[in-house]
Design goal:
mainly alpha
């Protein structure tokens, strides 16, 4: 390959490899999984969603490429502003957002026919803000002020996301908690946060299992209750349709799968192109395909850990690790749902599932991680050149 061409793509080569593999798998899986949707929504035009997803992915990759060229220190400056913008959009979404599956999650963009999901933006800039705040307060990292200030913003964002997207809010909370741990927040405070998280989740589960949802059809509460009851086997098997079809897809995929485009469960699974795309991948590409996707996100986590070890700046290390964890946790939850290990959540796989806002924001996240790794490489090269010149 032309060295001049490859030199334009700087940063961790393994992360570039992950991006390419996930993008290709996503294109193939979305094309196969949207067949039924195309017949019901687009008059049988099976190319429509394929071209739409490929177009969005192309835009996302352009955002990724442009983002990886920007010095990551700029994001420290804008993180505060965009976090507050995200919070404002989350409030606006609760007030005027459009409903998807009985959840007010998106804001319609007039004239474009597309929607914007502020929770994806909030996840991105919350990680940046926490990273900025912790890196600037490393000398006082054990103080209660640092812990409570960080926790305030976490709970504010999580609280605004939770009413309409509980699963996303839980992933955001867990990501933020891990980021605080990596940022060396006092272990005593981290234990407080752990007890808070476990207490809130346990209390919510107990409340949902015992609450009477009559008259609450317009809220998400009946959906949450049904999903927990289904997962715990307390619904007499009446609500297990989604995961049953997903398990059939996984079981029939075998080791090598049925082959591209040969899925049958895409005709029965709800949202096979997003929420249950991992089941379609295993059905068509078998255990091998599933392990490749899982391996990509494991590689991402390990390469982000390498950035943490090698980064000379705390902000860059924390941002890379936070974004890597956020996307990987989201992917692992999606996989867990597909194989029946977790209750149905509605989370997608970054760069693989069909989407708009989530695809763009995840692309930006990948670009920022690559930009940080690019900076580390440049610092190493400069040090080596200085040593060579000194000799």
């Amino acid at each position: 390959m032309n060295p001049q061409f490859t030199s334009r793509f700087k940063g961790d080569k393994w992360i570039w490899f992950v991006i390419i593999i996930l993008s290709l798998i996503g294109i193939l899986a979305v094309y196969s999984a949207t067949g039924t949707l195309a017949y019901s929504k687009q008059g049988g035009n099976t190319e429509w969603y394929f071209l739409r997803h490929t177009g969005f992915l192309f835009i996302g990759l352009l955002l990724l490429y442009g983002t990886h060229l920007i010095p990551f220190s700029y994001y420290s400056r804008i993180s505060q502003l965009f976090l507050w913008i995200s919070i404002g959009l989350l409030i606006l979404t609760l007030a005027i957002g459009s409903e998807i599956n009985n959840a007010t999650r998106v804001i319609p963009i007039p004239g474009l026919g597309i929607t914007f999901q502020p929770s994806d933006m909030a996840k991105l800039f919350l990680v940046m803000y926490i990273s900025r705040y912790l890196s600037k307060n490393q000398e006082e990292i054990d103080s209660p002020r640092v812990f409570w200030t960080t926790l305030f913003f976490i709970l504010l964002v999580v609280g605004l996301i939770a009413p309409e997207n509980l699963s996303t809010s839980l992933v955001v909370f867990l990501t933020a908690a891990l980021l605080m741990f990596i940022g060396r927040v006092n272990f005593k405070y981290m234990m407080y946060m752990s007890f808070l998280g476990v207490g809130l989740i346990s209390g919510l589960v107990i409340l949902l299992l015992n609450i009477n949802t009559d008259g609450m059809e317009s809220s998400r509460i009946p959906t949450w209750k049904k999903r927990i009851e289904t997962f715990m086997g307390k619904d007499d098997g009446q609500g297990n349709y989604q995961q049953l079809q997903s398990k059939i897809a996984v079981a029939t995929g075998g080791v090598f799968g049925k082959g591209p485009g040969n899925s049958t469960q895409r005709n029965y699974l709800p949202h096979p192109y997003s929420d249950f795309i991992y089941a379609i991948i295993i059905e068509e590409y078998g255990l091998i395909g599933g392990l490749i996707v899982t391996g990509c996100f494991l590689i991402l986590v390990f390469r982000c850990l390498k950035i943490v070890v090698e980064s000379p700046r705390a902000f860059g290390a924390l941002v890379a690790m936070g974004l890597g964890l956020s996307m990987s946790l989201q992917a692992f939850v999606n996989m867990g749902v597909a194989v029946g290990m977790l209750p149905v959540t509605g989370l997608t796989i970054p760069l693989v599932s069909m989407g708009g806002t989530s695809l763009f924001m995840n692309s930006i996240g990948f670009g920022i991680i690559l930009g940080i790794s690019k900076y580390i490489e440049e610092e190493k090269n400069q040090q080596e050149e200085a040593l060579t010149a000194g000799v």
